[in-house]
Amino acid sequence: MTVTAATLATSSASTAGQTSPPGNTSKITSDFDTFLRMLTVQMQNQDPLNPIDSADYAVQLATFSGVEQQVRTNQLLADMQSRFQEMGMAEMAGWIGQEARSAAPVHLDGAPATLLPSPAAGADRAVLVVRDSRGALVAREEIPVSTDPYQWLGADAAGNPLPPGTYALSLESLQGDTVLNTSPVEHYARVVEVRSTPQGTSLILDGGVEVASSAVTALRQPQDQS
């Protein structure tokens, strides 16, 4: 019966991918006890005429020790990451109530939305493309070729007000009838919540729209809506 480095690495591989400190500690202890039992059985059943070199035992012990150290290192890194994320959320708590600028979908509730378009260089036409939450095209609206704020009233192709909901906006920059590029349109929306997710910290905006904090390009105090 032979205990090899591959056996030990396989035994501990699943442990290395976990991040629960109590479970990792007990798992390491359990694996080490199993390793010692296997090593004892190996020594008891070796061929007396061809005993295993003591150096092989040293290699196996060193291999297990290395795997154990890697597990502990992974656990420490996971703990540090969790603490850094908590620190980031604490700092972002001050964002709640402020307005964040991003290219997240716009929550339309009957009031105009202030958009911040960015037409491509050389464009002589700009078209605002509006899609609903299902991705269906609901409007194409010609807007000025300018980076000035644009008040979007939220109308469909016939000019009728769109129902309240969430809409994804993009801007087609054209030169004549040739589309130069299509880019997302940024706008400001009030931050109502900060969340921690497996992908990082995210913000919840008015209307329940979620956006990664890393996607926010600016922050400002709420503007007077009166």
Question: Which key phrases capture this entry?
Answer:
single chain, 226 residues, alpha+beta, Immunoglobulin-like, 2 domains, five-stranded antiparallel sheet, 33% helix
How would you explain this protein's 3D organization?
- Helices cover 33% and strands 31% of the residues.
- It is α+β, with helices and mostly antiparallel strands.
- The chain has two domains: 5-90; 105-187, Immunoglobulin-like (Sandwich), CATH 2.60.40.
- The strands form two sheets. Strands 1, 3, 6, 9, 10, 11 and 12 form a seven-stranded antiparallel beta sheet that branches. Strands 2, 4, 5, 7 and 8 form a five-stranded antiparallel beta sheet that branches.
- Strand 10 and strand 11 form a beta hairpin.
- Helix 1 (5-16) packs antiparallel against helix 2.
Tell me the count of domains.
Answer: 2
Structural class given helices, strands, pairing? alpha+beta
Radius of gyration, in angstroms, nearest whole number? 30 Å
Count, helices = 3
Averaged pLDDT: 79
What assembly state would you assign to the polypeptide chains in this entry? Answer: single chain
From the spread of the alpha carbons, the general shape counts as elongated
User: What series of H and E elements makes up the topology?
Assistant: HHHEEEEEEEEEEEE
Fraction in helix: 25-40%
Tell me the strand percentage band: 25-35%
What is the CA-CA span between the terminal residues? Answer: 82 Å
Main sheet: strands, sense, barrel = 7 strands, antiparallel
What is the count of β-strands? Answer: 12
Function: Required for flagellar hook formation. May act as a scaffolding protein.
Biased composition (Low complexity): 1-20
Region (Disordered): 1-27
Pfam families: FlgD, FlgD_ig
